[in-house]
Design goal:
About 40% of the residues lie in helices and about 25% in strands. It has an eight-stranded mixed beta sheet with strand order 1-2-4-3-5-6-9-10, with helices on both faces. It has a two-stranded antiparallel ribbon with strand order 7-8. The chain has a single domain (about 1-130, about 175-245), classed as Alpha/Beta hydrolase fold, catalytic domain (Rossmann fold), CATH 3.40.50. By secondary structure, the protein is α/β, with parallel strands linked by helices. It contains nine helices and ten strands. The chain has helices at about 45-55, 70-90, 100-115, 130-140, 140-150, 165-170, 175-180, 200-210, 230-245, and strands at about 1-10, 10-20, 30-35, 60-65, 95-100, 120-125, 155, 160-165, 190-195, 215-220.
């Protein structure tokens, strides 16, 4: 059963969807999904399909949209607001985070930077280890450096044209994702990454894996890209298996 979600976030209303797991089918656990940069909670239909499949028998799933092109500090604040809402209204026995791409970085900062928001487990899908390296790749080195000097830059690609303010880029440099992941010493961690990811290089997944503690898994999708275009169903199957083991 799907239910629309609207809550007051730190920067305005946040909208999402709750996929309720039927009573008596599974424990009262929740998986909270955080989407990537310039993405959406639907993930081109893939995230919504995965949420439907998971909610059939494993746990309730919550998806939501971040404020468009907001900085990562703002995304962390928004993710915390949704986590607070989930804990207050759904009262989960366990709460898991799944972060895709930039949403994965948001999950790392949230989960590893504040013990109050430590989830019971976390999935990182194409998540970076270095925000600086990743956004040099996304924006181009010249545009990245111009943003550091205070100039807004335009990102124009297949997703459209967006103005990226200098504050967005400067905000990225506040966070050392690798150092934060060293705080993850308990709880399961699943990392899935494309073997030929040209945006978040595959070695960043290996670095994330090596720095984190706890029970952890790293799976490379063979020949696949940043969006796991070839093997997103296989990635979803890994997530479902992982949830079944730890729920």
């Amino acid at each position: 059963m799907k239910q629309d979600l609207t809550l007051r976030g730190p920067f305005g209303e946040l909208h999402g969807v709750i996929h309720k797991c039927p009573d008596g089918v599974a424990k009262g656990n929740v998986l909270l999904m955080a989407h990537g940069f310039r993405g959406s909670m639907d993930g081109g239909g893939r995230a919504s399909q995965l949420a439907e499949e998971i909610s059939e028998s494993l746990c309730t799933v919550v998806r939501f949209n971040f404020t468009w092109c907001t900085g990562i500090s703002n995304q962390v604040a928004e993710l915390k607001a949704v986590m607070d809402y989930v804990r207050e209204t759904l009262n989960p026995e366990k709460l898991f985070l799944l972060g895709r791409n930039f949403g994965g970085a948001t999950c790392i900062i949230t989960a590893c930077g504040d013990e109050k928001y430590r989830p019971d487990g976390m999935v990182l899908w194409s998540a970076p280890n270095s925000l600086q390296k990743t956004f040099i790749q996304v924006l181009g080195e010249d545009s990245f450096n111009r943003a550091l000097q205070g100039e807004a830059v335009v990102l124009d690609d297949e997703r459209g044209k967006d103005m990226i303010p200098a504050a967005f880029v400067r905000d990225l440099l506040k966070y050392d994702l690798g150092k934060l992941l060293c705080n993850w010493q308990a709880g399961p961690l699943l990392i899935v990454h494309g073997e030929k990811d040209c945006i978040v290089s595959p070695e960043q997944a290996e670095q994330n894996f090596s720095l984190a503690g706890g029970v952890k898994e790293l799976h490379y999708m063979p020949g696949d890209d940043h969006h796991l275009s070839l093997h997103w169903k296989e990635a979803g199957a890994l997530i479902k298996k992982w949830l079944a083991e730890f729920k």
